[in-house]
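User: My notes are a mess, but here's the protein and flavin-adenine dinucleotide's SMILES. Can you give me a structure?
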Amino acid sequence: MRVSQPPPNLSSIERLPVDQIARNADKVDKDAAFPNENITALATSGFLGLIVPKANGGHEASNSDYAAVVEEIGAACASTGMIFVMHCCAIEAIKTHMVSDTASQILSVAAKGQHLSTLALSERGTGVHFYATYGTSQLKDKGYLVNVEKCFATSGGKANSYVVSARAVKSEDPLKSTLYLVFPEDAGVSFNGQWNGLGMRGNCSIDLSVKNAIIPSNRLIGEAAKGLDIELSSVLPRFLLGSSSVYLGIAKAAYEAACLHVKSRAYQHSGQALQALAVVQRSIGEMKSSVDLARTFNRSVAKQWDEEGQPPLIALMEAKLLSCKTASAVTSLAMQLCGGIAYSGALPVERHMRDALAGSVMAPTTDMLLELIGKAALGLPLL
Ligand SMILES: Cc1cc2nc3c(=O)[nH]c(=O)nc-3n(C[C@H](O)[C@H](O)[C@H](O)COP(=O)(O)OP(=O)(O)OC[C@H]3O[C@@H](n4cnc5c(N)ncnc54)[C@H](O)[C@@H]3O)c2cc1C
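Assistant: No problem, the inputs look usable. Here's the predicted complex:
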């Protein structure tokens, strides 16, 4: 398998199967089909263990490597990129907070490419406020009786495990939650609906219902009632860097598609080449500098996280904000440059444009990020 840009410092890992992932992207989008082949390709090349500790057979990749890998996957197929990011977010919670033997078992099988995980935090009632839950937990002899209805669970029905939040035992407070690792084979777990999104069409982001399921206590992620802390300290930083890298990948892919198109397009009657027009050159320059700027910022935030050992939360929010805005602007410009041919669906540009739109509606959304960054700048509490 050929790699378009080898991930840095990942000599021990087989190279990313980006060509294969990119080949499947159009069909995944058209059919709104879960990218099984792409996930298998990532699994067999060791990437499901990208951030798994070495002690569990993983690659224990740095945040910089994670950002570089996700950008490449996102450029090849945004749906695959987002599924991969959700897997890494769940792995982050498991490796950092789950203390039972179940954690090491899951991490080991993920490193072997035999376990895909994901997040199921969102609920209809709380929308973008993914950290709030109306699920319930009760103590039972064998563990916890959990009831909760989740929505938008990426890889729904496809993943091997789900990080699920529900209110802590005896708590009425939607912010006082416990995180559980739920298996699809647990009695009471079912998946509903079909994903037919405008973009990210391979995501399979569907409803997950947990009805009277007994979750054994060895599947608690972190301490009971500490869900919010874990979401904010571990899951959110991993998600912010991952999603900013996916959107950066989308922007890069749209820029590259636009370059290819304007280089090959010339008018029959005049011989005028698109790339010879100053306005086209200027737009290409704008796209390239936007992508380069967003990448430079994204990589610098990832590096800061590597160097400091603590996630720079506000900078990570800014990275997602910048990448999402860049993806929206660059895909719009690419559509403008490539014209009706792009609009007709003959080029991947319209897919990139639809995929990019998810950035501003996936929590924390662009509006929420601006508000949070503003609050932090004013010294106000974030929640
Ligand atoms: C492709 C995709 C994949 C997803 N994958 C997952 C997943 O794997 N796991 C998961 O748990 N969830 C996932 N989600 C859910 C996602 O994170 C959000 O929870 C969901 O999109 C919320 O949708 P909603 O219509 O309920 O938004 P609403 O909560 O109704 O919000 C509507 C709009 O109002 C704005 N808004 C609301 N409150 C505020 C505020 N206080 N300040 C500023 N603006 C505000 C929002 O920014 C948003 O634009 C996914 C969503 C999408 C689209």
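Confidence is low (pLDDT under 50) at residues 1-8.
User: Great, I'll file this with my notes.
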